[in-house]
Amino acid sequence: MSYAAWFQCIRGCPGRHLLTDVIYRCPSCAGLLEVVHDEAALRGRTPAAWKQLFDERHGRTRWPYGSGVWSKIEWVLPQVAPDNVVSLFEGNTNLLWAERFGQQIGLDDLWVKQCGISHTGSFKDLGMTVLVSAVKQAIAEGRAIRALACASTGDTSAALAAYGAAAGIPVLVLLPRGKISAAQLLQPIANGALVCSLDTDFDGCMRVVQRLTEDPQIYLANSMNSLRLEGQKTVAIEVVQQFDWEVPDWVLVPGGNLGNVSALARGFLQLRALGLTTKLPRLVCCQAAHAAPLYQAFARARAAGRRVEESDYTPVTAEATLASAIQIGAPVSLPRAVQALHDCDGLVEQASEEELADAAARADRTGMFNCPHTGVALACLIKLVQAGTIARHERVVVISTAHGLKFAEFKGRYHEGQLGFEGRFVNRPVSIPSEPEQAVAALHRLLDAQRV
């Protein structure tokens, strides 16, 4: 069966554009574009048949279907030739039952989707495999594309550099100087990208890369490019698949540039539209208080007794935050995120620096190893449970966006008390004697003190 997808304006302007066209905004109104699928063709296969097909492909070795993204190729990028798929076996990530942490905060059915165990250590791989595959397809069709480019707070650059290297396409990365972790900086360097450090924040880097990619030979890889969302939406599909095709009650996701919350809504909506599910979860976009323009817009609308609209939004100058990857004051995917909140009866919550750091450390003590952005989502979850918004019996999924090892400095500074506050869950190494009898006695005293 033949499937198709194309770019179309999210504001409803007429016209369709090929997914291999170098285009990021509507030529009529400059609005964002979205990928639209031929749903009539997709409905030619029954919901039961789609479930069976996706389950049969899951984690297998037949190219390219073993990937968590490309196992859903018909729903993602149906016109790409398999030889042009650029995959590093992304997706298929663990859905962790966070039993102990859930019990501590008052939830019986809490799960954490560990997107940070993907190839480069973040969920950005899921979108980048689609974008780079589309570019490789475009080049095969004769498009003159010299390089891929992005502005980044770390994880986007790591994913783009890795997938660009796998495809053999040059990559140009613009990073805000001094605002990303050492591990995040090393990743694009190791993969051979041209890494440029700018004396500005992410929003400043974004202005530069948008100007740069006015040259059609340099392809924009940031999330305003909706190809990224097609890969990221598979997180929603995969979560439902892992629950034997049942939809959770709540999904919480950290929000910076706001592409991810938009992508999750797309995935859940597509599942319902094609009959694989019958309901939608409630989405919560979780922002760091130092960079929370969507939360501020949501709060203004809530104070007025109505739902949030684009007109409630005002860009902010993002302050420094431990959750550096979401330190964004002018998110390009805001219109999509507002629509996602409408579609999924969503909420927006924020977390302070101390709240996000304590939440990450508290969850680490139950066996996780969280990045600060996941800490934001966990802190917001605690607030919503304490407020009674989320009930004990409801099934909740938190999207963990990156691996904690990419933020070892953050964890080290927390436990050393160097973040400007004394964390509630600080755990410092203890010096004890080396003589065996004295050491054993000291260890017993320490264990007894822990019991108290």
Decide which structural class fits the backbone: alpha/beta
Give the overall pLDDT as a whole number.
95
Give the ordered list of helices and strands.
EEHHHEHEHEHEHEHEHHEHEHHEHHEHH
Q: What's the CATH C level of the domain at 95-121 and 229-415?
A: Alpha Beta
Radius of gyration: 22 Å
What can be said about this structure in brief?
Helix content is 39%, strand content 13%. It has 452 residues and is of the alpha/beta class.
Secondary structure topology:
Layout lengths: L4 E5 L23 E5 L1 H4 L4 H11 L15 H4 L18 E3 L1 H7 L3 E6 L9 H17 L6 E5 L3 H13 L3 E6 L5 H9 L3 E5 L3 H11 L5 E3 L6 H6 L1 H9 L7 E5 L4 H15 L8 E7 L4 H11 L30 H10 L3 E5 L1 H12 L7 H15 L8 E6 L7 H8 L20 H16 L1
Parallel strand pairs: 4-12, 5-6, 5-8, 6-7, 9-10, 9-12, 10-11
Antiparallel strand pairs: 1-2, 3-4
Write up this protein:
With 452 residues, the chain is of the alpha/beta class. It has a domain at 95-121 and 229-415: Rossmann fold, CATH 3.40.50. Helix content is 39%, strand content 13%. It contains 17 helices and 12 strands. It has helices at residues 39-42, 47-57, 73-76, 99-105, 124-140, 155-167, 182-190, 202-212, 227-232, 234-242, 259-273, 293-303, 334-343, 353-364, 372-386, 408-415, 436-451; strands at residues 5-9, 33-37, 95-97, 109-114, 147-151, 171-176, 194-198, 218-220, 250-254, 282-288, 347-351, 395-400. The strands form 3 sheets. A 6-stranded mixed sheet has the order 3-4-12-9-10-11, sandwiched between helices. Helix 5 (124-140) packs parallel to helix 6, helix 10 crosses helix 11 and helix 14 (353-364) crosses helix 15.
